[in-house]
Amino acid sequence: VMKLSRLGSFHQSKLSFLRSFIREFKKWNYKRNLFDLDKNGYGTAVYSFEKNGRNYSLICFAQHIEPHERSDRVIATKWDAAFVLHDGLPTEEDIDRLRDNVPKQEIGRVSYKELTLSRANKSVRAFEHVVDSLSQGNQPNKDLLSKVGYLYRTTAVYGSGKFGLADRFRIKDRKEIYGPFRLEMMLV
Predict the structure, then answer these.
(1) How far apart are CA 45 and CA 32, in angstroms?
(2) Three-class HEC string of 15-80
(3) What is the pLDDT of residues 45-71, one digit of tens each?
(4) What angle (nearest 5°) sits at the alpha carbon of residue 110, between those of residues 107 and 112?
(5) 116: which of 56, 85, 164, 178 fits an S-S bond (Cβ 3.0–4.6 Å)?
(6) pTM, full prediction
(7) What's the DSSP call for residue 139?
């Protein structure tokens, strides 16, 4: 039985998922296509990655949410950030369409051009502390970071046809993403 106190003591093997993922994805070509964030970090960013002549794009939307809108529950309706993995390079029309739908998650709709969908929330306990510390030229409190364990936390990842996403059979033979959870890890 896994115990929380022992999780950090497990050693990776060359077959470990994270290790094989990093080994594979360091061979890709990466590019920042769009970085349109305001002074508070809200807006849109697009990163593309290419291998064997095929492109995938991570499209990110960051938004301000009020404290009363914040929830860690699965029934939440707003998140600090929402992401989609797009098959190919998105057009401006694709980005506009996704900007209207991706932050809505379950009540939004995406198309067969999108492969996976996700969202994340800031750590209420750690995020502002880290921003404040770094903006003043100081390192954040490592005890606080160790206790909290994250700055952003993914709260869901969807794929395989859900909410209009591409069905897995459309991409199952692509060698560059062959293997379990490759698409999901490209997203998060």
Answers:
(1) 8
(2) CCHHHHHHHHHCCCEEEEEEEEECCCCCEEEEEEEEECCEEEEEEEEECCCCHHHCCCCCCCCCCC
(3) 999 999 989 999 999 999 999 988 887
(4) 145
(5) 85
(6) 0.85
(7) -
Instruction: Report d(CA 168, CA 176) in Å as an integer.
Output: 14
Which of 173, 150, 171 lies closest to 161, judged by CA?
171
Q: What whole-number distance in Å separates Cα of residue 119 and Cα of residue 144? A: 24
**3 state DSSP class of 128:** helix
To which H or E segment does residue 182 belong?
helix 182-187
Q: Is 105 left (phi over 0), alpha (psi -120 to 50) or beta?
A: left
Measure the CA–CA gap between 54 and 142, rounded to whole angstroms.
40
Instruction: Give dist(CA 80, CA 155) in Å, integer.
Output: 11
- Alpha helices for 70-156 (secondary structure H): 92-101, 127-135, 142-148
CA distances in angstroms from 70 to 62, 64, 137, 187, listed in the order given: 14, 10, 29, 22
Query: Which residues of the chain are under the pLDDT cut of 50?
Result: 1-2
Place of tokens 């900007």: 99
**25 contact partners, CB below 8 Å, separation of at least 6:** 49, 186
Would you list the domain boundaries of the chain? 17-122+152-187
